Give the backbone structure.
Amino acid sequence: MTFEVTILGCGAALPTLQQYPSAQVVNVHDKLFLVDCGEGTQVRLRQSSVRFQKIGHIFISHLHGDHYHGLFGYLSTMRLLGRKTPVHVYAQPALEDIVKLNLRISESYLGYDLFFHATPDAGSHMLFEDHSLEVWSFPLRHRIKCNGFVFREKQRALNVKKNMVRRYQLQPSQIIELKKGNPVALSDGRVLNPAEVCQAPPRPRSYAYCSDTAVYPELASWISGVDLLYHESTFLETEKRRARETFHSTATEAAEMALRCNAGRLLLGHFSARYADTAAFAEEAKAVFANVVAAVEGETYRVG
Ligand SMILES: [Zn+2]
Ligand SMILES: [Zn+2]
């Protein structure tokens, strides 16, 4: 089952020819979610193989322009492409006012339903749920209100092996009970335990997105054990003071969070335009957390 993240933008506030502001597509079992929508999101989507119209849910971390200035164009393009199915936006409540003002002033319409869902300021809250996935928000520590998001697969049911269904002539009602983890009685009086005939389902995987944030130890409780952690590293340690002033993190601090929350792998992003080479971020982080990579736009990273 697919669970992966495609990076559309991993630069900080100043776009360059190499790096666009924050945006990424999370693919969970072929359902697509857009996370942040900085300027240039549409261009990067065109360059990737991601289909615009498959995205129905957009999560915006906060209302600094480098995380949502691409949204107006993106919503408008979906109308031009003939979208009819609804779009859900999860963000700080003010974004609804901003988007509606923009539509009103330009006398534009969308042609599809647009729903806004407010991201809560404190604690961890489930924003989205379907049969196989949950998406939760949690607060980050930034200059303005800011949320991170964690995508968690749900635990799948036990699977009864096909050859066992044949061997024991299992009926649908017995299969349902076995999948629930209950023993069933066979016609000869023998009791069949799930462990004898079932295959354990794969371990649920998870992905956390944390951009933008200063050092925030409380984070670990909300993203504990994630398989992949995207954490901002706007600066290197040499600019630690600047990181403090702007409520951002260094690569070392991102690695310390990966260690603290016991992440499987760390993906660094939100790089300041002052650095020409992002390899230095992974190098710095490696001293604290070995399984780390600096994000590259257009690349796709597997979760788990
Ligand atoms: Zn930012
Ligand atoms: Zn910001």
Q: What stands out?
A: The chain has two domains: 3-156+202-302, 159-199. The chain has ten helices and 18 strands. The longest helix spans residues 94-105.
